[in-house]
Amino acid sequence: MQQPFPAPIVRFLNEYHSGGVTEADCRACSSPCCSLGGFAILENVVQIYELYKQGGLHRADYEYESGLGFANFVFKYFDVYKKLVPLEGGEATLMLFHMRSLSQDGNTIAIPTGGDYWETRAQLFELNPWLNRGCVFLSHKVGNWPEDDGDATRHCILHTASSGTHVTAKPVDCVFYTCNKPIEARVPTEEQSANWFRLLATHFPNSLERFEALIRDDPADK
Ligand code: SF4
Ligand code: SF4
Fold first, then answer.
1. In CA terms, which of 11, 14, 44, 110 is 20 to 30 Å from 203?
2. Is the pLDDT confidence value at 147 over 90?
3. CA of 165 to the centre of ligand 2 (A)
4. Domain boundaries, the chain
5. Looking at ligand 2, which residue's alpha carbon is closest to its atom 2?
6. What is the side-by-side strand order in the sheet with 90-99?
7. Model-level pTM?
8. How many CB atoms sit inside 10 A of residue 164's CB?
């Protein structure tokens, strides 16, 4: 059974989304937000992997590599980062799993490590726009990023009817993301971002330890 988002997260999301685009707006949109997507938390990644194991991950123009164990699946389709989140009386480590983009020839693009993930990614794709054909969990590739091809049949294959209210395979930071009006991103203030990370670190604690345990107990690829 899927776990509903904790009440403080529901309140925060409702407030942040207030006055933004509707689900119908997003359905009628070509999803340009998914070429520079958000991040998943461990709870999402575990569900994405379950979906993969059950043969439930499908897209029209790419085949997910078969037989991967959890660790190899995660490190193939995500850039994995640790984020230190200040909390009352100390700080917590929150694991962030950034979905990779696909290239035109069907490779997943790893963002070089060492600096700030978001800055490095923005710079890489700004200098090499031909590289980015959108998130690996889109139903099909983006034609000519960053141009909008207006193809509204493109959608997130992880989205479900309960993704806005429950912890599902859809990455939480993609649930958080919204637009003021279609294709006009709503940019969170620093305070909103800090609150978002604080809520995630508080309500989904010990993600580093849990991730390390999953990797340690991971059977080899099948
Ligand atoms: S760009 Fe904005 S309107 Fe379009 S799918 Fe993404 S969130 Fe929805
Ligand atoms: S996981 Fe889904 S919603 Fe998030 S960026 Fe990828 S395709 Fe878009």
1. 110
2. no
3. 16
4. 7-215
5. 156
6. 39-40, 90-99, 78-87
7. 0.96
8. 16
